[in-house]
Amino acid sequence: MEICKQFSSDLVTDKGNISRPGPVPRFSDLEVVALSMAAESEEIDSENWLFESKLKECRQLIPNLISRRQFNDRHRATSGLYEQIRSRIAKHIDGNADYFCIDFKPIEVCRLSRGRRCKMGKDGDFSTASDFGYCASQGCFSLDICPFRKGQKKS
Question: Hey, is 3 helix, strand or coil?
């Protein structure tokens, strides 16, 4: 919540809401955005599981928590604020780098026995560079490639 407040000082009112007519909600727009970001950072994509399981434990810590239906409506209404805060945080983290890699998952190219003969990435094109890795679920080593290793060039 504090991080969202830091990056949204000129976007919301003192109570953390987008300026609009009508009653001021007890669960602020900034709290909706912070809850959305927290759920996304923990890779929770099911609001049902979030509200029925995860937040049931913390009801005392969040006294004005809204229902799942209200959360979905408010989340849609605050999507612009969410995107602005997210991009401000990304710019702050970025550090003016030319490339910014967000996430990646290695893809197996070949097993260890053929890995030494593989020519992928050895010609100087590092976007296709591969490296040896260990897969804990399969319990084996392999030669992997990361499709997003190159990252995204900033515009």
Answer: helix
